[in-house]
Request: fold
Amino acid sequence: MGAQSAGPLVVGVDSSTQSTKTLVVDAETGVVVARGQAPHTVSGGEGKESDPGQWWRALGEALAQCGDAARQASALSVGGQQHGLVALDAAGEPVRPAMLWNDVRPAPQSERLIAELGGAEAWADRVGSVPGPAFTVAKWAWLRANEPAAAAATTAVRLPHDYLTQRLTGEAVTDRGDASGTGWWASSTESYDLEILERVGLSVGALPRVALPGEAAGTVHADDLPLPRGALVAAGTGDNMAAALGLGLRPGQPVLSLGTSGTVYAVSTHRPADPTGTVAGFADARGDWLPLACTLNCTLAVDRVAALLGRDREAVEAGGSVVMLPFLDGERTPNLPGASGLVHGLRHGTTAGQLLQAAYDGAVFALLEALDRVLDKDAAADAPLLLIGGGAKGRAWRDTVRRLSGRPVVVPEAQELVALGAAAQAAGLLLGEDPAAVARRWGTARGAEYEAQERDGAAWDRIATTLADSGPLLRR
Reply:
């Protein structure tokens, strides 16, 4: 251990939809000295649910894989999947499985809440975001309407990361970043919105305290994890906020994440309020803001098209004028929940490789169009795009992003950015430093650089026109 580590050790946790990852990191150098991972299961069918007890067991398994390093940690932080509804009874036990961010059953409740409280613009001005079905407030409204006995038995509501922090420390604490994805924390006042809570029949006493940036949640009290009792526990945050910390983002640096879903975001010093609902006006974990847009169809959708064509995912070909909107699962950005995939401009001369390239183009277009809304007006148009997520490793994804954005691209070498960001938050708490500055010291955003190439305006215009003209079909 001594040879590997110059400073105190910290643990960063990424509790995601599918698994829990843990990293033990040297707080001074950012060197990862141990790592662990354990899976979660998510229910199939219409609802997307998980037992929160699974997350706790997975955390224990992942920490056990880290061996002695975890037992020597001085501080820990949890980054967790956003928006999930964890309903607890008076004994602190879940009354039912947690409803996850990608559970779209609350769509009717989302629409009703938006209408009842003055419409999308009023929500954006007040809360910072228009609460789609992902948001916790819509999930709570769904629970009250569909499972009134479960709602009546609920005395505390937590987000996934809050639930783990509470089991670690015994304290009911969240942070402004993750709280900003609930729909009942208002960015305009940086506090819980009592009128919204009253509207959905939830008492403010059922919610955790919102810690200030840099404030501790408590110390480790749990006996059933391989962690030292008394180690500091940071407030933690949502997964997107943790990834922003993990990259050490400065305002105006755009990030494009290519995973099952795609996201674009940037840190901003201005409070976002997008009345179209395209951009979620999240808070970040430090005191600034994290405007973010998310698409549902990204790497999985393009891989499905490749499989249908019987081609390797990299086997794209240039040329042709075919357009594909790969909205295989409906779409969130643009907001077309009932949409399906659409192909336009197919000709005798169109090749399978051109059709596959069109799927990449359609997925990347939706993200880059949202990026224009995410970035502040004064952000540099030639700032490099930080490309992260599984898709960033793929040449076809990188080339498509460069061709349609006209920006240089950097692919950071650092993996597991959510867990790294949580570790940076823990290190910042322990050392009394800004966690983003800690991540910059660790050099987490360094990686392969790809220079800008001329933007393919013709392809961009083709996709934009097809999208605009297909409105009635996509809304069916």
The mean pLDDT is 95.
